[in-house]
Design goal:
single chain, alpha+beta, Alpha-Beta Plaits, CBS-domain, four-stranded antiparallel β-sheet, four-stranded mixed β-sheet
Amino acid sequence: MIKSSSYKIITVYTHEEARHHGRPLYETLVEFLAARETGARCIVTKGISGCYETGKIASRNILMLSTNMPLKIEIILASDQRVDDILREIISMVTDGVVAFDDLNVISHRSQSLPRPKKLRIRDVMTYNPEFVTPSTPLSEVLRILINSSFKGLPVVDSKERVVGIITHDDLLARGNIPLRLDLIGEMKNSLLHHIEPDVMKKYARDIMTAPVITVAEDEYLSTVISKMVDHNLKRIPVVDGNNVIKGIVSRFDIFKSISSNPVTYTGQNLFQLPVVSAKVKIVRDILRRDVDAVSPDTSVWELAKLIYATEIQRVAVVSEDKRLLGIVDDKDIFAEFTETPEDIVEIVISKFAFRGIRYRKTIKKLKLKKAEEVMKRDFISAKEETPIEVAMYIMEQHGQKHLPVVSSEGRFQGMISREDILKIFLQV
């Protein structure tokens, strides 16, 4: 059975003489949609005959010749393309006509080029009113805010809320003596704070923040923040006004949500339909990172842990003898093995794998006896090398994945792609 995707159709019934701010309505509607870069298809059809509410007939018949012929304007757009906002603006523009709105099942959408958010500004995607701290905020309070926040970066502001710095995971690692990434701290904060509390109590935001900090203005184009993120390897940037006062924060994930707008239908690991097909789009193979560790199913969790903490992406692929991808292991999977005594793994991590003197020998033995196949995730989402980058981006956004495993058409592991890899591509288009 052919699958369909959910789109919306807006239909405007009007006439040639309808105006908006003194210009033909149909022209301003088309220009409005083009300027918003909504990814919409729009067509204006001129009727050969019709009548209006007043009873007046419009016809090309020589005996009833009318210069005010009926127009039908159809706008087709994906369901997640800010439909409500667009519809409200169209309704306000149409002062003489009928506006209709309905669902539309689309079975194919092909285009020579996919829409790009060239005119999208930072204010359109940023998170407003983020939490922030001052330079004198204790590190323990910084940790509490970050642990309970969806954002993993915290702006530091002065008494006038002007940005003077930012605290990120790297700052916590380098200057805060915090050995784990923030989501893991949230899962086992009691055990972790038990070990690091003395250090935490002695430090303040000013001791660990990055300063000066790179910022962007809310009216700058999205391409500006992408460039800064790629050039400086940043995951989030504070947004400020003309006086450097904090207005928001923008992250890679915010950008992903804004540009991964083409609906893709898939189940599990298999893409079975791509509603939007572009002839010029790049594919995953073009940006594939192949220097990713892959291990066999019988590799010990102890070896996995050392690999994971030695690599930037903090995840390892588990493959069969013929390189077929069987599963993925990240640090969360390893930590899940210590739900009863999480302080054991904290002690090991804090020791930075300098194993002399660690008293939890049973924990280390358990890590060495457990195999990768026992802890790996088997229900992973992957993409094929030929997958269009837009599709991969959509998958990552929908599942909140920072990295996406890539396999060949035969299912053999090839590597991974990251959000940063995709952002670099968007700077080239």
